[in-house]
């Protein structure tokens, strides 16, 4: 039988939450693991470090509590012991806690110490490994840390050791690092967090027999848009760091594999490398643009300022679908409109076969592709992907034609108005709404104010309006490039005080990325 005190402890334990020690990866938000993303989606509290990319925080729920505990050299927001206690306290409030750490929590991330504290407190916990910068940063610099011709043994070493009463540092007699063993016993050496201590590191390696001509590379902010790489030798790299003012955080690679960099560079020699691009499309549409930007070397930061939502009422759409065979044309002005109609047909027990009767028009290739994927033939797409061109290039006289336009509630009135002027009978039905998405605004506003965004992309008028409403025109500093998918979006940007620098000639995301690439190449 349980005593009262034991029962109270059991109840308290059941009420406790759980802590996930999650590796956020080396910096590139795309390198967060799927499991890490799942935990972030569930978190009530996110306790995060300095090296966590702000875009990753956008995956947290809007109501989640975000607590910054970042630590730079000699500048700690919170001591490690306080962080440990914070995790325990939040879990004892019954919260699901994500401790989000750059790289991998158990690779010089002090995750082991945090786990020990949780075990001692009786808190349930789990470790979610992340991609360590020890291999990722060199890889993004074109340096494989192992290679059959150059390296059969790899070592990962801390760039600064735990201090005992403030006295220990690398090179001291008390150091745990066996310099006499690793200097010549391992082909590739990776030092993490070692920029400030680089003179001591190079001195110890040289003193213990490593060849002074051994290649060395420092990779700063590896995998991110601001990645920098400095190459030298064991004999001169410390001097080069002083001369260039090279700063942390950086990974140091020592070994012949560094010589492969010029041959294998793939990340930092692409047209848009070094550019951080804000993607303002809705969350379910952002991936296509982000993928194209990554291919050109940019770092996309997804800031979905709009969210696609169902209409307030389906009455209009349902009535139009019931009489679909009475229309001569169904004109779709966006891929969202296509998906909304198909989803509604499915909800009411029908499918694409119900769309019999009318000919089908699409405002542009993305919309046409979405229709085509359903097995429906597109009868008309204009040469320019705006409402005005739909009217100008309409394949027959619209007079007397019944035309259905399923669209967003907030869409422009140009298309129906011009068609009606030509004698068409136009029915506009709301198939979906675009609503403002607020969850990512604070970290994005901070990135803008810090000058960490180079380009802002707008793919529709609604993305412009919502962006300005969420972060404010004043949050966009001078020098940030404004890129618009077409003239209508560009006009909306100007009306909101944002002067477009780039307007795509082809009004598609491919055309937008092509325009960015041309601008970058001069």
Give the gist of this structure.
By secondary structure, this protein is an alpha/beta fold.
Written account of the structure:
The strands form five sheets. A five-stranded parallel β-sheet has the order 3-2-6-1-7, sandwiched between helices. It has 522 residues and is of the alpha/beta class. A hairpin with a 7-residue loop joins strand 10 and strand 11 (228-233). Helices cover 35% and strands 20% of the residues. It is elongated, with a radius of gyration of 28 Å. The protein contains 20 helices and 22 strands.
**Low-confidence parts lasting 5 or more residues at pLDDT below 50?**
1-14, 163-169
- Gap from first CA to last CA: 80 Å
Helix content: 25-40%
Number of helices, counting only DSSP H or I runs of 4 residues or more: 20
- Beta strand count: 22
What's the alpha carbon Rg, rounded to whole Å? 28 Å
> Strands of the biggest beta sheet: in what spatial order?
3-2-6-1-7
Principal-axis shape:
elongated
User: Largest beta sheet, briefly?
Assistant: 5 strands, parallel
Structural class: alpha/beta
Strand content: 15-25%
Instruction: Give the overall average pLDDT.
Output: 90
């Amino acid at each position: 039988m349980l005593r009262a005190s034991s029962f109270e402890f059991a109840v308290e334990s059941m009420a406790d939450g759980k802590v996930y020690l999650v590796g956020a990866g080396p910096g590139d938000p795309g390198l967060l693991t799927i499991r890490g993303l799942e935990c972030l989606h569930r978190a009530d509290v996110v306790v995060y470090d300095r090296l966590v990319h702000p875009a990753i925080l956008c995956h947290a729920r809007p109501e989640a509590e975000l607590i910054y505990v970042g630590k730079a050299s000699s500048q700690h927001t919170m001591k490690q012991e306080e962080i440990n206690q914070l995790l325990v306290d939040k879990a004892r409030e019954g919260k699901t806690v994500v401790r989000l750490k750059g790289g991998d929590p158990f690779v010089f991330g002090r995750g082991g110490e945090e786990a020990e504290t949780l075990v001692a407190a009786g808190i349930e916990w789990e470790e979610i490994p992340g991609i360590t910068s020890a291999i990722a940063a060199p890889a993004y610099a074109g340096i494989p840390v192992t290679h059959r011709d150059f390296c059969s043994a790899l070592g990962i070493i801390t760039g600064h050791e735990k201090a005992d009463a403030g006295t220990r540092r690398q090179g001291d007699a008390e150091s745990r690092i066996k310099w006499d063993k690793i200097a010549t016993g391992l082909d590739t050496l990776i030092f993490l967090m070692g920029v400030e201590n680089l003179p001591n590191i190079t001195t110890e390696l040289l003193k213990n027999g490593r060849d002074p001509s051994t290649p060395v590379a420092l990779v700063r902010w590896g995998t991110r848009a601001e990645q920098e790489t400095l190459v030298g030798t064991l004999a001169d790299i410390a001097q080069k760091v002083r001369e260039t003012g090279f700063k942390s955080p950086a990974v140091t690679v020592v070994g012949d594999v560094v010589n492969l960099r010029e041959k294998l560079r793939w990340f930092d020699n692409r047209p848009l490398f070094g550019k951080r691009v804000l993607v303002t499309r809705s969350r379910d549409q952002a991936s296509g643009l982000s993928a194209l930007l990554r291919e050109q070397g940019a770092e996309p930061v997804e800031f979905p300022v709009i969210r696609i939502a169902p209409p307030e009422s389906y009455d209009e759409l349902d009535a139009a679908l019931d009489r679909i065979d009475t229309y001569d044309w169904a004109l779709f002005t966006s891929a969202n409109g296509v998906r909304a109609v198909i989803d509604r047909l499915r909800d009411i027990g029908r499918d694409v076969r119900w769309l019999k009767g009318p000919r089908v028009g699409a405002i542009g290739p993305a919309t046409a592709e979405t229709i085509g994927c359903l097995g429906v033939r597109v009868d008309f797409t204009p040469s320019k992907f705006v409402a005005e061109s739909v009217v100008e290039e309409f394949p027959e006289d619209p007079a007397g034609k019944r035309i259905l336009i399923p669209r967003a509630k907030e869409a422009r009135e140009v298309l129906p108005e011009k068609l009606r002027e030509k004698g068409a009978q136009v029915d506009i039905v709301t198939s979906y709404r675009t609503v403002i998405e607020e969850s990512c605004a604070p970290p994005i506003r901070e990135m803008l104010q810090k000058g960490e965004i180079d380009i802002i992309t707008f793919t529709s008028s609604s993305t412009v309006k919502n962006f300005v409403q969420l972060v404010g025109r004043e949050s966009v500093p001078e020098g940030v490039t404004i890129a618009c998918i077409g003239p209508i979006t560009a006009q909306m940007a100007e009306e909101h005080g944002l002067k477009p620098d780039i307007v795509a000639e082809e009004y598609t995301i491919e055309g937008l990325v092509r325009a960015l690439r041309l601008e970058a190449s001069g």
